[in-house]
Design goal:
- The chain is an all-alpha fold and 392 residues long.
- It has a single domain, classed as Growth Hormone, Chain: A (Up-down Bundle), CATH 1.20.1250.20.
- The protein has 16 helices and no strands.
- Helix 2 packs parallel to helix 6, helix 3 runs parallel beside helix 6 and helix 15 runs antiparallel to helix 16.
Length: 392
């Protein structure tokens, strides 16, 4: 019998909803504002996005290891959410290219610190038979904020106009739900875990399972294919979408992700997470091919919907699978997974930015090749894992 979803899964989802409402108000317009109004280049955008992705992973392993060592989750989650909220004050003070770049990186540092303890906290609230669904529900709430955020941004820009002052007002409004998210998080009861063996971060690697390490390698290779979402927005802009329409397109992606997440989570509980993750890799290859040949606006709309389906799997079910593989050191496992995949995002974004300047299609070709290689590798290891799990 399937177990019920723990109430704190919903509460943590509300925290993520408020955070994403705030963040996506900003991120839905960031690429266009950074290049179109602030005057930065696409190459600099690639560098900043790569550094932001690196920053969002840089502290994950440390915070996850510390949460395992101390047996605490909540205090580190609060610190991370609070740091991201403070970072948004930078935009209220200044909107220069330097300030925008610093904000993008610093805000992601907060995400990196909260990610592993929060995900381990979620995993501790679940059971194997409802873990995929629980992570899917959390991601659906998270992405609901990402739906509303771009819509609020769209409304403000439509009402106030596409100018610098309008964006400054938007940045101030975005700060409000960020503050509320921290308040809500402080009201959730902590769920201390069993303290792990007192070993240092490097030594904890040896305690992680072989299957987890193999999956970590596959995920890192796939991450080299992971271009920044900002380039998809630039592609839409190049095809003919206006700034306001690009914001709505971003909301469409998030609607697709939010709607699909719970159902995909249930499916992963039923058929196995390896199959779902292989499906996501295949979808990503199809998306890369689609963006190479997309020439009409309806092509772009369909691809953004498909990207939402991919993201629903990638963001939730990968973490649920990591939780399946590691039951004792979940904070460390979650953190190391986010760290390794995040480190790969930097060269991925730099390469995508450089190839974009030559020909945007080259960036998608490069990503498609690495995604397909990761898919083949995952299929290979999945056969090995199945053989090991067969009864002798």
């Amino acid at each position: 019998m399937a177990k019920k979803i723990h109430p704190d899964v919903i509460k943590l989802g509300i925290v993520s909803f408020l955070t994403d409402l705030s963040s996506e108000m900003i991120f839905s317009v960031f690429a266009i504002f950074f290049t179109g109004i602030a005057g930065a280049s696409a190459a600099l955008l690639g560098l900043v996005e790569g550094l932001a992705d690196l920053a969002s992973a840089s502290l994950n392993y440390f915070s996850g290891w510390v949460s395992d060592k101390t047996g605490k989750r909540k205090i580190f989650a609060i610190a991370g959410y609070g740091f991201s909220t403070l970072a948004k004050l930078i935009l209220v003070i200044s909107t220069s290219v330097l300030s925008l770049s610093i904000f993008r990186v610093v805000e992601r540092l907060g995400k990196s610190f909260r990610g592993a303890p929060r995900d381990a906290w979620l995993a501790d609230l679940t059971h194997h038979q409802n873990r995929g669904y629980s992570f899917g529900i959390h991601k659906a709430l998270d992405k609901s904020g990402a739906i509303l955020g771009p819509l609020v941004a769209y409304g403000l820009i439509s009402w106030l106009g596409n100018n610098l002052e309008s964006f400054k007002i938007l940045f101030v409004v975005a700060l409000i739900p960020a503050l509320l998210s921290v308040v809500v998080l402080t009201k959730i009861k902590d769920r201390p875990c069993v303290k792990s063996e007192r070993i240092n971060m490097l030594a904890s690697w040896s305690k992680l399972s072989t299957q987890y390490k193999q999956y970590l390698l596959i995920s890192s290779i796939f991450s080299l294919a992971y271009f920044s979402f900002s380039f998809l927005l630039l592609k839409a802009y190049a095809v003919g979408f206006s700034l306001k329409d690009v914001i709505l397109l971003y909301a469409t992606f998030n609607v697709s992700c939010a709607i699909c997440s719970p159902g995909i989570g249930k499916l992963s509980d039923f058929i196995g997470r390896q199959k779902i993750i292989m499906l996501s890799y295949g979808i990503y290859v199809a998306i890369c091919l689609g963006f190479i040949f997309a020439s009409a606006q309806w092509h772009i709309v369909c691809l953004f919907i498909l990207f939402g389906i991919f993201y629903a799997i990638d963001e939730a079910q990968n973490k649920a699978f990591v939780a399946d593989l590691e039951t004792e050191r979940r904070g460390s496992a979650m953190g190391l997974y986010s760290f390794c995949t995040g480190v790969a995002y930097l060269p991925a974004s730099l390469i995508a930015g450089s190839l974009w300047l030559i020909n945007p299609s080259y960036a998608f070709i490069f990503s498609g090749i690495f995604a397909f290689a990761a898919l083949l590798l995952l299929k290979h290891f999945n056969k090995i894992w199945q053989l090991k799990n067969e009864p002798q």
